[in-house]
Amino acid sequence: MSTVNEATIVRKSNYPMIEMENAIDLITKNGNGNVCGTSILKLTDARGYIIAEDVNSPENFPSFRTSIMDGYAVVSPLTAGVFKIHNAVLAGDSVPLGEENLKVSPDTVAYITTGSRVPDWATAVVKVEDTSLSNITNTVNININVTKINENIRLVGSDIKLNESIVSKGTRITAIEIALLATVGRVSILCYNKPIVGVISTGNELIEYDTPTSTPTPNTTPNSNETNTNTSKIRDTNRLALIASLQSENNLILGCSIIDYGITPDNNEDLTKIFERAISECDVVITSGGVSMGAADLVKHMLEKLGTVHFGRLNMKPGKPTTFATVNKTNNKCFLFGLPGNPVSCLVCKALIVDPLVDLLQRGGVVSGSGATMTATATVGGQRGMSKQELILSQHATPQYTTEVNATLQDLSVKMDIERPEYHRCVVVYDTTTSTYHAYSTGIQQSSRMLSLRTANALLIVPAGRGVLSKGANLRCVLLSLPSSITTTPSTTPNTNTNADSDTATIEPQSASASELVPEHQYDNFGSCPCCVNSAPVVSQYYDTITKPKDTKTTTSAATTNTNVTTATTGNNANNAYTKSPPTGHTSSSMVSATKMVMRVGVLTVSDRVRTVY
Question: What does the DSSP 8-state code read for residue 197?
């Protein structure tokens, strides 16, 4: 058995509890401009990195007129009839010598395939479906009249113009950017280095997840549910979860390199060694455990000795003992996060405060595409009156890891904590009929209960107070992933007691709108398709641009006194807050338009259900 000197027990923290917004502000101020360096990477190795230069096209694309269809190159205008076939032009064929300025008679055509260079003499292409076989050798029947010039011809520079912006500094490189850069002949690209993130679990009680704890024996104590074992060890799950969420699906949400430092026991000697090593090797170090008030909680003291502790407690539940520190190195800083040992607290705080910093570091301290410094508002505040469509577009334009919206509580009651705001795990859905977000508790909210996090896609910010919040309360809600859509207000059997032994809110939404569904996919009741990325929003149409009606206004008003939250209202129905404009440059070959449209949009989820892509 261990012994503890009662006189050495810390009974009151020296650190004040600070608000989440202030914590984010401290983190981003320390991270601004803290670049992890840049490297020139081969294009094929650049996926997932953030580009550190602006790239404009050095040429027009296509650089010559190309045929959009398989068919016949003709001289327009043309009247249906029988035409002599001059030659055949296949994709990749060079212009025959002497034909650069060839003049042909109006009754002459050339067979041509998709992507082929259109002969200089031709002014249109007739698709093969509008022709038929002729009885006369080396001729073809054209069955339609042609009046338009350049019909079915892709003009020079129609996809990408000379000097047009291809990729902007601060953009994450995905398959689309790789294709664009390859199209204009780039073989290498300047990128920000990915930050190196170290992950450490601390605690004498921890063992590796694949290590047997002991052989259980029946408990002979009457009316006891415990199982007798000869150990007090538990499996380390936090480290695995942190690493998995940092990697994320497709490794695109948080582009970072990860070092697993394993489990470190609660003693100063081992902690000093592992911290010094991790600080020397990493840009960010994440620990779990050892930051509370116990006699064996040594991480805070270790961080105080090694660097500067910027905060040691957060005014939130779960996650109060979360700690943030920095250590100055030769050319930059190392950022250290001491996260709580309870698994839910650990992952919730990681999503709220660690992810934005990791993203900030790999962008050189600026928000993607804007060149502006990240602030607490950009990271935490977000826009709260957004429709889902606007939310998707805003996430595509400037990824944010903690976007907020307002959501209406659908459970009959949620108990408030008398001391701290609670980041209550919930499921949020977007009602397309009422243009509102609905929140459903995931049940028991104990910080050790991972099951409450498994189905959550958001954190409902329940203010501190006495009593309970009733159904209909309008609260700020941090989205961990984009919500699915429903077409009508859900018909529910509410979870009347979030302390009940249940981790799943009973939700029975109707199927997603027929206009949102892709026929060949299999959708669940939330409009999600298992063959697509988990929980990805159903998007049936893509937009190049959006316009905001002039009469749409956003105002802010105080909520009811028992919620203490801010609400947003709009002059129009939220569905109409943004309306689609006619697509511009929306051709099947336009890679530039592909970077503007919403393909799949995602933000990090603490349960690692990640959707990628910008």
Answer: E
